[in-house]
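Review box. Two proteins, two foldings.
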Amino acid sequence: MIRAGIIGSTGYAGGELVRILTVHKDVEVVWYGSRSYIDKKYADVYQNMFQIVDAVCMDDNMDELADQVDVIFTATPQGLCASLVNEGILSKVKIIDLSADFRIKDVATYEKWYGLEHKSPQFIEEAVYGLCEINRADVKRARLVANPGCYTTCSILTAYPLAKEGMIDMSTLIIDAKSGTSGAGRGAKLPNLYCEVNENIKAYGVTTHRHTPEIEEQLGLAAGEKVLLNFTPHLIPMNRGILATEYAKLKKEVTYEEVKAVYDKYYTDEKFVRVLEKDVCPETKWVEGSNFADINFKIDERTGRIIMMGAIDNLVKGAAGQAVQNMNLMFGLKESEGLELVPMFP
C-alpha cells in the first residue's frame, strides 16, 4: 500500500482528495493535515465522512510527515509548499503540489502574478507540470509534480492539439471561462456568499487572473512560440464545473474532418479526454464528479475562426482527480485507478 499524507485536507480540493483516495485500492491516507482544524475529527469537518474516516486532523509538519508516507499532497494556498519543501524531504518522498508554486518556470513571472517571493526556486526547473495527457513520460520519473490549475487544465486541453499542430494564430486566442463557486475555495469571502452569487454571473480578474501566465506558458510550449492571450474568468451560481469557450483565427481554411483528425490524433487513446460528436457542445453537468474533460469545436467559415469548447469538474480533473492521476503514474499504477468515476446526473 502507498501511504499518503494530505496537507490542506479540509479545503474543497483536499476534501475531494480524501473522497477519491478513500476508495483507492492501493492507497492508505495516514495524515489528514489541516492547520485550521488541528486535533479535530476529520468527520466533524466533513460529515459526509462519518464512519468512513476515523482520524483527527494534524498539522502541516512536512519534515515529520515525510518520514511516515510515500507521497505528500499539498492542497494549500500559494507559497506554503515552496516554504516547506527541501532536498531532505524530496529525497524521501514524492510531492504533488496542487498550488501554483511550481507550475510557472520563470520565477519573476510567478512573483509578479502572485505577489509572493518564491521560497524554493531551486526546485522549479525540476518540477514537472502534471498535465498527464501532455507530460506523461516526465510525470512517471518525477519526485515533484506541479498539479495544474483548474482553469488552466480546461483551457490548455481544449486548445492544445490545434496549438501543437500550428493550425491557429496564437496571437488571436481569446479564452472565456466560467466556474462554479467551489473554485474560489472554502474560506469565507464576501463575494462568494450565497446572496452575492445566487441569480448572478460576473467576470473577475479581468486581465489579471493568475492562471493567465500558466496557460500562456504551456500553450506557448505547444506552439513553439511566445503566447499572449486574453483570459477572462466568470463566476456562476453552481457548486462545481468549468466551461471554457476559446476563439482563434485559423491559419488556413480547414474542414471539420481535418480538425477532428487532429483532436483524435492527440486524444483517441486518452481515457479522460472525450472529444464529442459533431455539433455537440460540452456541458459541465456531463462531467460533474468525474475526471473527464469533454471537448469539441465549431468552425465559423464566415469569420475564418474556430470556436473550441471544453468542460471539466474543477475539483476532480481540475484538482484532486488530476493529482491522483499523477500519483498513479509516479508509482507505476494503472493511470485510471481510483478514478473510474461515472459523471453524476442530474
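Next protein.
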Amino acid sequence: MAHWTLDQIPWDRFDPTRVDSDIVKLVKAAALVEYNGGDYATYLRNVFHDDDAFCAVAADWAQEEVQHGAALARWAEMADPAFDFDASFKRFTDGYRIALDVNASVRGSRAGELVARCIVETGTSSYYAALADSCDEPVLNAICRKIAADELRHYKLFYTHLRRYLEQEKLGAWGRLRVSLGRITESEDDELAYAYYAANHAAEPYERKRFSAAYARRAYAYYQPPHIERGIAMVLKAAGLNPQGPLLKPLAGFAVWFMRRRVARLSAAGA
C-alpha cells in the first residue's frame, strides 16, 4: 500500500478558530523530533550494518518520520505564522545530537535495540492518537490520525524483526523487560525537553528541568484511559509478556493515576 503524501492532507480546511495554543507548542516540538529521523536511521544502519533487509526497512521508516515532521511543521507555521521551522530545527540539532559513530546498539544487542524501537513506536502511536482525539482543528486532526496509524505500523514492523533476532540472540523476558523499562524512563530525557525549548523558547537559556516539566504538563494532559491501556498492552508485548494478561489493568490504572497526578502537580507548580 502506497504511503500518504503531504498533498493528501486537507490543508484548505484549516480553521484558526479551533487552534489550541498548548497543542501548537507540542506540535512545534514534535515536528523537530520527527524531522530528525534521518539521524536515527543512520544510527540503526550502523547497528544493523550487515543486515541489508533491515537497513532497507530503516531507510523507508526514516523517510516516513521526516514526512511526519514536514507535515507537523507546515501546520505549526499555519497556526503560528511567527514560527520559523528551519531556524528551530537548526537550533534543536545544534543543541541535541545522538551518537552516530557506533557499530553496536546502546541496548546491548540487536534484539534489545528492536525492543527499544517498539517502545518508542508505542509512545508515538499513543501520543498522536491522544492528540487527534483531543483536537477538533480539522487539518491537525487528519495529520495526527495518519501519523498515529503509521507509528502503529512501525511498531509491527520492528516487532517482526525483533522476533527474528530473538531466535538468534536469545534475549530472555527479563532482558526485554529491562530494556523496555529503561527506554520508558528515557521519555523525559533531553530530546523532548530540548525540542520543546528550541521550538518555543529560543530567546531564553535552556533549563532541562523547566522545559521537561512544561512539555510533560501539556502532553500528558491529552491522554485518556483507552490510549494508555493500549500503550501498556503494546509495551507488555514488546517485553515478552502477555499483552492481555493480568498485568494489563493494574498497570494501565497506575499509569492513568501517575499521568493525572503529574499534570496536577506541574499545573500547580506553574510549569
